[in-house]
Automatic annotation (TrEMBL):
Pfam families: Methyltransf_2 (PF00891). One of its GO terms (biological process) is methylation. This is O-methyltransferase C-terminal domain-containing protein. Transmembrane segments: none annotated. SUPFAM superfamilies: S-adenosyl-L-methionine-dependent methyltransferases (SSF53335). Residues 116-317 form the O-methyltransferase C-terminal domain. Keywords: Methyltransferase, S-adenosyl-L-methionine, Transferase. It comes from Ramalina farinacea.
Length: 339
């Protein structure tokens, strides 16, 4: 191809010719094949007109007759629709202004939710904003409720029977697991569905307005609780945090931990974190993207094992071990009070 931009007819001929005469060794060099595939996808995207975009969402099958595509079918699932709403209403406006935000703040990563792009854009931190705009908060809760569907469940790679069930005290009042910041209680329900009840009490904690938005959960007790205040449930076998610590900067995480420690029984209680684990090198694109998403929302971050260990050590805790699904990015991190 000449160094001058080809005209459309010349390009058409060249692309048609190339598509008919792929090099015979195209499947021998996988890196080159992928680059070629990506270049073709970029070309296809660059050529898309606005109406082509609409056609990908609905598809005409006859006069005045339309059928949904897989994308629009997925959007009928409430949690998917609310994911798109959350992304469109809260995330996209922040991403759009991120270059200006970074320039204004000297390209420094914020270390306090009150200085995060979300707060700068909407005037309060995300959880206060949701309290003041309940329909947006409920939409976020629906997104979180369905967000873990289709993903590997922590119970598939963390040996809960051996690590929690076998060790929980036998009294009726014993608490097996407190899901701190558990949203609508979906993880506790999944635990009860998979493992049955009768292993100890299951307690859901979240902000009062979130717990009030949760459906009636027969097998789960619910309570409004702010994790920046002392943990009221004493001596549980496990205090479980899914996707909580990645929301927060180090200082806020330390405050949350400090509020749990007095409730823990030494030698018995555990903290169990279910979060994304960043590999020490070569973080995959999704993990890096989540790290940026947490930074813009609440000045939070995804952490490596070393960063988890340092955070826990800083509050007198010991990282016991980390379990991770093969090929997955989520991990379960267990910690106990140091001897
Ligand atoms: C990213 S969501 C995770 C929800 C749930 N654990 C899950 O994985 O689906 C964070 C949760 O933290 C809750 N949260 C935020 N601030 C809180 C606070 N100060 N005390 C208790 N919960 C809080 C939010 O309401 C929300 O449900």
């Amino acid at each position: 191809m000449s160094s001058q931009a080809p005209n459309i007819h010349q390009l058409l001929e060249e692309v048609e010719e190339a598509s008919k005469n792929l090099p015979p060794d195209v499947f021998q060099d996988d890196a080159a094949r992928k680059r070629l595939q990506e270049a073709a996808a970029r070309l296809s995207g660059a050529l898309e007109s606005p109406i082509d975009g609409v056609r990908r969402l609905i598809f005409q099958v006859g006069p005045q007759t339309y059928t949904p595509t897989p994308v629009t079918t997925a959007l009928t699932v409430p949690s998917m629709a609310d994911y798109v709403r959350h992304f469109a209403y809260e995330a996209l406006p922040i991403y759009a202004d991120l270059p200006q935000y970074m320039e204004k703040h000297g390209y420094k990563v914020p270390n306090n939710p009150a200085h995060a792009p979300f707060c700068e854009k909407f005037g309060s931190i995300q959880w206060e904003y949701f309290k003041d705009h309940p329909e947006r908060g409920q939409s976020f809760n629906t997104f979180m409720q369905g967000q873990h569907q289709g993903r590997t469940c922590w119970l598939d790679f963390y040996p809960a029977e051996e690590r929690l069930f076998a060790e929980v005290a036998k009294e009726d009042s014993a608490v097996l697991l407190v899901d701190v910041g558990g949203g609508r209680g979906h993880d506790l329900l999944e635990l009860a569905n998979r493992k049955g009840t009768g292993h100890g009490r299951l307690i859901l904690q979240d902000l009062p307005e979130v717990v009030a938005d949760a459906p009636e959960l027969n097998v789960v007790e619910s309570m409004g609780y702010d994790f920046f205040t002392p943990q009221p449930v004493k001596g549980a076998k496990a205090y479980y945090f899914r996707r909580i610590f990645h929301d927060w900067d180090t200082e806020s995480c330390q405050k949350i931990l400090r509020n749990q420690l007095p409730a823990m029984e030494k030698g018995y209680s555990k903290l169990v974190f279910n979060d994304i684990l960043v590999p020490e090198t070569n973080a995959p694109f999704f993990v890096a993207g989540m790290d940026v998403a947490m930074m813009i929302t609440l000045a939070g971050m995804e952490r490596t094992r070393t960063q988890w260990s340092e955070l826990l050590e800083s509050e007198g805790l010991q990282l016991v071990d980390v379990w991770q699904a093969k090929g997955g990015v989520e991990a379960v991190i267990e910690a106990v009070l140091k001897d």
